[in-house]
Protein: Transducin/WD40 repeat-like superfamily protein
Amino acid sequence: MDKFLAPLKPSPQISSKPIRRRRWHRSLIELNGRLEPNYRHSVSGLLMQSYSELRAFHHFYHIDGNPCQTHMNRMVNGAYLPPSTKEGISALDFDNKGIYLASVTKSGCLTVHDFETLYCQSNEPLLCLKEDEAKHVLHLSLHQQLDFVRWNRANQDEVVCTSMKRNEVLMFDISYISSEPSEVLRTKPRPAVLGSNIQKGLSDIAFTSCDNPRVLASDTDGVINLWDRRMSTFPCLELTSNSRGRLNSIQLNVENQIIFGAGKHGFIYAWDLRGGRTSSFFKGTKEVSRPPLASLKLSSMLEKIGPLKEQSDIVSKEIHSINLDPCCPHQLAFHLDDGWSGVLDVYNLEVTHIHCPPPAWLDDSVVADLSFLRKPSWLPTNSIYVVGSSTDNGIHILDFYPDSSSPSHVDYNEDAHRLSGIKNQDKQNRFVSLSEGVTACAVHPLNSTIIAGTKLSSLLMISQTHKPC
Structure:
């Protein structure tokens, strides 16, 4: 009977060599319930490659049946004119949840768009080229140049705008419909030599996230004005810089303790709002003005990057914008008037990333338009920076991950990464060609859709054409 039975398989001999256990990265991701930063960076190349323009929404809007001021500036006798310095979208901003998008134009229009309406309409046939004006939350023509817009982070019903031609902070409450601002804050006039008063225009705005009454705004005279709305419509404190040059951009850190400012003369300033005394900023103080805690000349810091200094003549340039990385709070991104972008590590006070696009003369591109202050934006994840090109119609999507594996890092070694055999998913900076020249960018806080404002006062929706793995 035994001959009909299948013979037993010999038991495998146990090897004396130690067994190498494989680490299952995907299992760890599933167990932890979150994506590790290094894993996010490893697939960020797929995300950057997935963006493309979906739809352009032109500012052909009306007020009471008549073309608004921005619309009228594009038309003469029914014909549309090429862009001028008096038009174009100057700033964009999403609210905290990405429900509303606020935009302002140099012609003086403030518009609050419903983002869901824009997103749904971007998937409709191309025959529907115009945005549905009936879905606007707010559309006002203020008959003055507008240069910046910001949502109040502590009160999402409040949208605020400023102009570099006026010394006013205009605050609008969208919870009720009104063509007039709910509140107007003003700076103190600066006396001139001959006794007359010189009005200071305002550029950027910031809010303390923990306190609704406090507002900060930079001006064209190198000062950051601070208002306590419970006390007065005039500033209670001025943060002064070392020069009278215009401050183009300000950023308040997450602890509401340090505010950074940068502008025309190529310096980055930092002020400690506490003033060296515990919580003195929030308890009140008799100080009228306060000097900066630190003053950094950006061109001197760029000269410390050896390969960059060997290839380029480093000169002081105007800083258009600064932005703190939401993923890595010690990374302060900057953008210069010649199109360069980079990152300043505010802990070590050194430039860690730099992106230098080819100059306009190299490929016969259009010379950079200096009538606009380009306003970039960070993606909410992955430390990716989005900035409009200074010479071409399009945006640069830049990998500013806080590590030498970023292709923009000053210590990045392409040959070493290639020899290491690490799969980088084609991690490299990308240029996305668009239909119009970009002046300002805003990124949706949840789905990372990019909205770009253009020199022709259009909104371009740039979204992912496929989902990254």
About this structure: The two ends are 58 Å apart (CA to CA). The CA atoms of residues 14 and 20 lie 14 Å apart.
